[in-house]
Amino acid sequence: MRITNKWTALSLSAGAVVLSLTTWFSATAILPELRDSLGMSPAAATWLTNAVQAGFVVGALASSLLSLSDVMPITRLMAWASAAAGVFNAVALLEPGAASVIAARFATGVALALVYPPSVKLASTWFRQARGLALGVMVGALALGSALPYLMRGVGAGPDWQLVLVGSSAACVVAALLFGFVLNEGPHPYSYTKVDPRQVGAILRNRPVMLANIGYFGHCWDLYAMWGWIMAYAAAAQLAGLSVGNPAMLAFAAIAMGAPACVAAGKMADHFGRCNIAASGAATSGVAALLIGVTFGGPAWAFLAVATIWGAVIIADSAQYTAAVTELADQTLVGSTVAFQMGVGFGITMITVWLLPVLADMLGSWRWTFLILLPGPVVGTWAMLTLKKLPEAELLAGGRR
Predict the structure, then answer these.
(1) Is the pLDDT at 192 greater than 60, yes or no?
(2) What is the C-alpha separation between 289 and 215, in angstroms, rounded?
(3) Lowest mean pLDDT among 117-121, 225-229, 289-293, 391-395
(4) pLDDT score for 312
(5) How many CB atoms are located within 10 Å of the residue 325 CB?
(6) Is residue 204 predicted with pLDDT exceeding 80?
(7) Most confident segment among 239-248, 271-280, 373-382
(8) How far apart are CA 398 and CA 128, in angstroms?
(9) Coil, strand, or helix at residue 191?
(10) Is the pLDDT of residue 368 over 70?
(11) Among candidates 340, 374, 345, 316, which has minimal Cα distance to 216?
(12) Cα(153)–Cα(132) distance, integer angstroms
């Protein structure tokens, strides 16, 4: 039986993305325990997070070069990829050694690159109107799925790190079943194309698309560094004398706040303009990157407020860069263009995910480390305000720039 209602399709698609994306931070949420179990140095342990980013970059760029989501049924692609992510995520349960676990985390990232970018294209086949809202829901699913391992640790698993891995791998299996046997493309499918690596040149030459991409690249500069290290940052603030409660629960709350924020921003973008909402979100994220350091020394309520507000705004603009690409790109290359955007963007995340703990070590404190993220929101704001001035921006959100 095929799904015919777009809201049912969106809900199930978002649910499957939530389940599969639990594997992204599954190792990061249990980093202290996994590091001790594997005998890893702090520098090597950083790659438990960064290896996923690297794998995602390789998977997304390979998908873009080969036009995978434009030459084959995307639900089938996502089903196999989600199942693979669950298998690779579970490798750490065998405790095969640090190198093997890092390699498995890389492979998890490759698999997720064949789940999340195609899910954006899948949602777009159901929505021509309200596309900003629909993609906001999908990015919100990314945020919620990324946050869930912290919840598993904070509420259920605690230091029993194996339970986090078992839960996230099982979630991937359920997602694979949804993608493979329940979901289907909507009534507005994109045309299929042929494999041609030269198509990347068409993406690079499209100035409006590249401005949306540059906005996304600036957004990626701060997003995953904040997501990846907010628990460590909160723990450092607590050691410095600030009462923040359970750092894992704070990390969950901050990241999960992005889910409703993405939905709200998507709805507003459809009414008030895609560029306007994206630029506003980027600018607000930059302010929060500054204020989190100001409140590091207290009071606790201010620190908690900034952390949760930042968690909401840092992801709220994400869907609008991708929605802009689906509207501005060659319509036979939407899947490839989205994969290219995310591949390059997630490559940028590796820089700041690696840099933050190095900077904290150099400074002897985590307090001002998030200031290094400020250039991202500045670039994102500039790119979207520049895009807004172009005549092609009339294609955005039915003419709402």
Answers:
(1) no
(2) 17
(3) 391-395
(4) 92
(5) 28
(6) no
(7) 373-382
(8) 9
(9) coil
(10) yes
(11) 345
(12) 33
Burial of 189 (0-12, 13-18, 19+ CB in 10 A): middle
Q: What is the DSSP letter of 67?
A: T
Beta carbons of 339 and 61 less than 8 angstroms apart:
yes
- Whole-angstrom distance, CA of residue 41 vs CA of residue 45: 6
CA–CA separation, 57 and 112 (whole Å): 10
pLDDT class of 381 with cuts at 50, 70, 90: very high
The answer on pLDDT for 103 being more than 90 is yes
Q: How far apart are the first and last CA of the chain?
A: 39
Compute the distance between CA of residue 74 and CA of residue 252 in angstroms, rounded to an integer: 30
Estimate the crossing angle of helix 258-272 against helix 131-151, to 10 degrees.
Answer: 170
Scanning 152-273, the segments in alpha helix (DSSP H) are 161-181, 199-205, 207-239, 247-256, 258-272
* Distance, CA of 124 to CA of 327 (rounded, Å): 10
The whole-angstrom separation of Cα 1 and Cα 180 is 13
The span from the CA of 139 to the CA of 323, in Å, is 11
Residues 85, 100: Cα–Cα separation, whole Å: 15
- Amino acid found at 69: S
- Shortest CA distance to 142 belongs to which of 386, 345, 365? 345
Q: Of 350, 384, 362, which is closest to residue 281 (Cα–Cα)?
A: 384
Please give the mean pLDDT across all residues of the chain.
Answer: 85
Whether residue 164 has pLDDT greater than 80: yes
Cα radius of gyration (the chain): 20
Length of the chain, in residues: 401
81: pLDDT strictly greater than 50:
yes
Give the model's confidence band at 195: pLDDT under 50 very low, under 70 low, under 90 confident, else very high: very low
**Residue appearing with tokens 């979100």:** 281
Tokens, residue 364: 């002897």
| DSSP annotation string for 240-288 | TT-----HHHHHHHHHHTHHHHHHHHHHHHHHH-HHHHHHHHHHHHHHH
